[in-house]
């Protein structure tokens, strides 16, 4: 009897210890710039594991053939000002000599833009735009792939025109317009142009000049249009690329009535329309941020880091001790989430936070060479904006990084980093911006939460 009691006691004790051991093997850790404890997830902060954040300036962001014309300027106290101008070639559309009666008389010429409802900045103020004639041929640029330092970015697929390119234009404007940008209601913006240009083009059409016989001939004669914002503008406004340069004329028809008509030049080749987007960071903590000096660590900018569309500004993340954890043979990672918090005060303001973000993998030379995909999928992962709640939780974006953690064991991922960016569509055709929130110690609130099992 006593022997059986001892046997059952040992078995019970062994089972209890086994259960306790299994329970102790499952752990939550948080690689974080914000060392606050998240009780709701049972996360245990690990000071020995780091997340380093920087603001990083990309080079060669393609802004051509996006279908979006960006024109304007806005200024933010923290990050400085952005100025967007648009350049484009014009084509002859359906204009032919036969389309204009011999007795027709010239009336006027206008350049017409149609807003696409996108804006960024203060649209309560009067905005000014000017139309200039381009004097250089607008050409595409090819980025050659080569060594790692010259590797073609993942978002560049062929010849394009880039955000930092400019082409010379006549400093005397063909026409200027100041207007109230009621972008949700405004159907079109028409700028009256110089009648000297209008009369010349009208005469060339009527006379059947060779310059009007094809798009290529017309580009040789009239190299293009530059749409330039006023210096005191407060918003960047988006327009459709269905622009027209309209020659207005009139004639008397066979019935003796006066008829008003229009001959329309349109966008000749969409590949040659692009947006030049320039930033001025003077007077801010980011004044030293340039293509030649592309990285500013968060410690040098009072903990502030940000990303921005079209200027090519992204947030760079590195995890110095992550590889050691991933390569630990006694660790099995079950879940990995990257959480990026932002200040809710920017939502529903002049500078809304982006609706979603993506992650790019950059090589050791700062070239983004691949995307972080959705797990078990080939599509780039997009983290949607998650608004703040009434319990003090800030707005945030959450990425699933389990696939990335599996990949970083590969040799091709050696010395890589992550770039946080607006989706490529916004990177090329918007100026959406995200300012990352900070904690009480002036550190960016960026966490990599990892659930793992230790054997």
The number of distinct helices, counting runs of at least 4 residues, comes to 6
Estimated helix fraction: 10-25%
C-alpha Rg (nearest Å):
29 Å
Major β-sheet profile: 8 strands, antiparallel
User: What share of the residues does DSSP label as strand, in percent?
Assistant: 35-45%
By DSSP, the count of extended strands is 27
Description:
With 455 residues, the protein is mostly beta strands. The longest helix has 24 residues. 37% of the residues are buried.
Lay out the secondary structure:
Blueprint: H1 2-25, E1 26-32, E2 44-45, E3 52-57, E4 68-76, E5 80-88, E6 90-91, E7 105-113, E8 115-121, E9 127-133, E10 175-179, E11 189-192, H2 195-207, H3 215-221, E12 225-229, E13 235-240, E14 244-252, E15 258-267, E16 274-280, E17 295-297, E18 306-308, E19 313-318, H4 322-326, E20 331-342, E21 356-362, E22 368-371, E23 383-384, E24 395-400, H5 402-407, E25 417-421, H6 424-429, E26 433-435, E27 446-454
Parallel strand pairs: 1-2
Antiparallel strand pairs: 1-27, 3-17, 3-19, 4-5, 4-13, 5-12, 5-16, 6-15, 7-11, 7-14, 8-13, 9-10, 9-12, 14-15, 18-26, 19-25, 20-24, 20-27, 21-22, 21-23, 21-25
